[in-house]
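User: Hey, quick favor. My workstation is busy. Could you predict this chain's structure for me?
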Amino acid sequence: MRNLVFLIISYFLMFSCVQKAYKQTVIYTIEIPDSEGVTSVGIRGNDQPLNWDQDMELKKINNKGFYQVKVTYLTGYKFTEVKFTRNGEYELQNMPNRRIEFNPSGVTQYKAVFNQPLK
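Assistant: No problem, here it is.
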């Protein structure tokens, strides 16, 4: 009897603590005002598929210095944190990461200017 009670309690503890994960897609668009000499634009972040060690490349979408990438997360969180890179160098050095709040619809549009925090 004692073992049965232990098993029931263990079962509820194991499965009641698991957070449900949702698919969240973020379309990141960044403007690089002085894009002369830019060889690469990337993004790094907390949650997979991003990481802090390697850039995910953004593609140039026009000749005005705009770059874009679509990232899909599988997460239980309601936000993520990222920073953009230009030629492998982080923006906003010695400043907080950009915090992106996920839209409840599952698709978030995020627009920013390189090295300028949102107000």
